[in-house]
Amino acid sequence: MTKKTECVICDEVRVVDEDEICAECHEENEADTADELRAAGIDPTDAPVIIAAEIARRVFG
Ligand SMILES: [Zn+2]
Question: Looking at the whole model, is its pTM more than 0.70?
Fold first, then answer.
């Protein structure tokens, strides 16, 4: 389901997802997250469950 409303990040009226973030900002967000994961030595192309496990190991290990 798509709707058009103000994106919470760029304030442009665009088609947004359930978090009210437009596709453009979403891509930027994902790129940022991938960069952060890489900086932490985690492969961002790993399955989310593997990344979550790796992060948990770092936080709780
Ligand atoms: Zn946006």
Answer: no
